[in-house]
Fold:
Amino acid sequence: MSFLAPALLFGLALASAPIIIHLLNRRRFLRVDWAPMKYLKLTLKTNRRRLRLEQWLLLAVRTLAVAMLFLAVARPISSGANLAGFLKVQGRASRVIVIDDSLSMSSQTDGRSAFEQAQLAASSIVRAVGAQDSLTVVTSSRPAHPLVRHAQLEDADLSRMETTIRELDVSDQASSWTSTFDAVNRHLETAVFPLKEVIVITDLWANGWSSDLNELCDRWASEEITLRIVDVGQEPESNRRILSFTQSDPVALVDTEVRFTAEIQNDRAEPLLAGQATLIVDDEVQALTLPDLPTGETIEVPIALTFDEPGLHRVSLSIPHDNLPNDDDSHLIVDVRRMVEVSLVDGEPGLGPFESELDFLAVALTAGNAPWQINTVLASEWGNQPIGAPDVIVLGNLETLSPERVQELQSLVEAGSGLMIFSGEQVDVEEYNRLLYRGGEGLLPMRITEVRDADTSGLVIEPHADSPLSPLLKLSPESLGRVRPRRFVSTSVEEELNPDVRVLARWNNPASSPAVIEKRFGDGRVLFWTMTADRDWSDWPTEASYVLAMRMAADSVAARLLRWENVTAGQPLRYPLDPEFAPQTAKLSIPPTGDEVPLSIEREADGIPMLVSESTRRAGHYLASWEEAGIGEQMHPFAARPDVSDSELERLDGSELEQFLGRLTPQLIRFTGESMDVTTAGTELWRYVVLMLVSLIVVESLLAPWVGRVR
Structure:
């Protein structure tokens, strides 16, 4: 037995207090002879032995109560004398060893990572497990795919198992102990022996532990399943990490500067003074100078790149590595296009220049050397033509749409295309609400109420950080004050509570009527303008701010072609294939070694074949390849960024861990290197000591009046 707070055991000296008080009370009385006492002595003589026994019993209870009080606060724990004693159970046991291989396990102390410690600890435990026991070994990143399952290992098997453990590498995933324990529970359900125990080797960093474990752990406690936790971690002190690395510009175009933003955090680390970072574009390495990064600060670093070829490009960012290196890199796939295809559906064509509904919009999108491919079609003809797959579709003052065309639009936007809708005199309000709004389930962000005359003094832009209209906030108030519509359509306001709907701009009138409303619909976005795109309802199309607003709006809703390519480590890879040329086999090159593994090919409910990889353990660039009949070899890249949520600098102690484990009390052991420190192993006994203390207090409360009664 050992104690978590042995210094408090000095309080046991106070257990002698009841004995000292008893002895002092005995000396307080003087002996006086009195004649009648001899008759009383004759009476008491027969009861003296019983009275003395009662007093000694009361004294013992009081002494034990004081001793139990200080034993309880010293927190005794039971432990074995060595690793074999720690693992010893009566009878044959089914054991599951879980090796934590999450990102935080790459944290290094004195040149050795926590994962290397975990490998040594796992090897020690495997060697100590009896050959008669059943053994299952899993990693936290892939608990459903054990290294060995329900095996009884002989000497040769143990050697191979140790080799397998040594060859493991740490992942870039975040830990998720709820899903890991669920998978372990499924292994236990098929275990052969009735005695069951789980040994978790981890650094005890806080991320991944949650109260969702309580229910399962309560069931384990009722089934008398033992949970042992081997702690191989150290208290985290400092870290620098890339929180995010994203493409700021919605669309990347050839020979056009594309902006990116890197968010870098310095969490308690030493200040990084003008640090040198590395940017890798495809195979070209570039140096990037970071600004000063003070302790405890987070900075946003703007990065601009220009691509001279269309296609999918690989981009990686690395900052100087520290003691937790796996969160110092981030990766992206960037889709660079030659142009953006925009389909303008004109609901009110005109005969002369700038008399059609969308003439001003077409000029705004094509002004200068903008790579926008504009296809204008009349609404009367568009309803009978194939809709195609443009990046952006603009509906200008259309009277109504057929249900079939609405369904096609919904499918396109859901798949990632952008849609902009402009109002006008021809709009049939009831049909728009019935077909496009559909009680909030359709493409229209809000229900249209009526067309009304305007009484406004300008346009007010809502300060959303990622709004496509946010560049208008940099314009002078006078510029936006000149945007004064003569008419606009009013909308209902109850849908503003919908998380997929938000107002991007309002008219400057007493009611703050919405001017531009956005709705996220599947993977695409819809922008609804409550005014016309021409000069019928306002003179805004003649202002320079109109050009800026329309270009930014169309750019923001343009189709996102990268739906599958950028993931976080731990997420599966998926990619749709052409049903006519679907291959029978495919393979995936994985980082950092470039080793190739098979890819699964699964069919969705709609019959579309998909390339599927269960998970991405490591961050970096992946490359899928397959053969298409009559076409040849096809390849497609992916990028996985590390899950930096696992590098939060917070660690649990034993008492904090217990709140996540319900009624299950874990047995803790500390692994510090080549050997186990079993002095911290075992079950804490203070709860039982407190129970004994309470029982002694109750006994003393009942016994004291009995001993002191008048006799």
